[in-house]
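TL;DR need structure tokens for one chain.
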Amino acid sequence: MKKIFPHKLIKKNFNQNQFLKLKTFLSSKGIIIKKKSTFKFELEKFKTLYLTGFSSLLIILVSFTIPLLSKFSEINPKLVKNFKINDSNKKFEKVLEGGSVENKTKLDEGLDLSNILEDVFKFEEIPKDSVRLSASTIEELFRDTNYSLSEVRKSKKVKPIRLSLLPNEIKQIENSKKRKSLFIQIILPLILEENNLILLDRKRLFSILNKNKNSKKEINWLNIKFKQYGVLNKDIPTLKVRMDIIPVSLAIAQAAKETGWGTSRFALEGNALFGQWTWSGEGIKPAGAESDTKHKVMKFKVLKASVRAYQRNLNTHSSYKNFRQMRAQLRDDSEKLDSLILADELDSYAETGEEYTKILKKIINQNSLKDFDDVKLMPLSVKYKNLT
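>> reply
TL;DR here they are.
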């Protein structure tokens, strides 16, 4: 029997009596009129409401989740390497002088030398009134201040005694253990201080990276650091890789190797702790060098300048790119910067190559230099706390 739905037959002016008569007539002819149920229509309305609510909730969740994933990726990029995250707040080329956000520089490639040692040369402006203390005077100073390596190993704190020059008598100290201890005590505060400055800069850099908008002061600071680290095209990832510390034990080992624990002519006459060469600047010509030799060992007015130049050298020169990559990998893996691992990447530092790295590791192990990797320079002001 055919079914007819009344909404297809009834107009708005079709009254109820007419409808009843029509229904009776059609029934007599075997045709049943059935009223269409409104249940399905009501269900459709609720379904639309549910879908709208669910979509809104999903949008809200995504809006909150993406920023969290972006921050989490900085902590452990391996875990989120398959996620595509909006990192527009990190593309600083758009912010800095209206440059392109496209990164056309490969990571840690290229070097602008024009301003790379500008802050090192500032030490040359210091009036030449630094006093060279005798070895006995320095040892007495260390005793009076209770500054000893045994105490440092125990307390993990270093007295902020900054000396500008090595004592001439250090080469006359026959007891090798005593000579080594004096050398370490002199350069340890200088290395720690320079590392602290780098860590403060690194902390500020990551603070800037986590902002959606940067102040003019922050932009100017970034521009200074790009020049300081010789970064091309204002490449943020390259700056992050280069702006990092050198493990204390590694720095001490290299200084010990390059100066014979502070006894070399370069160290005593030129405050050169790391044997860096120069072809244009002021330096000391190596003894026995051939007449056509153009390079010299770079000299400095104070020891602190030598430490800073050494760190800048490892942090920028193309010969130590593998060193920086390994250091960055250790950071990504949340591992400590291990001097024994990083030493393997310094085969380009000396002509002896791999043999040089073996000597460095031997110096580190034999003298327990890794004990100094986690020491802190006193006084521990608020800004220096929790620097790693």
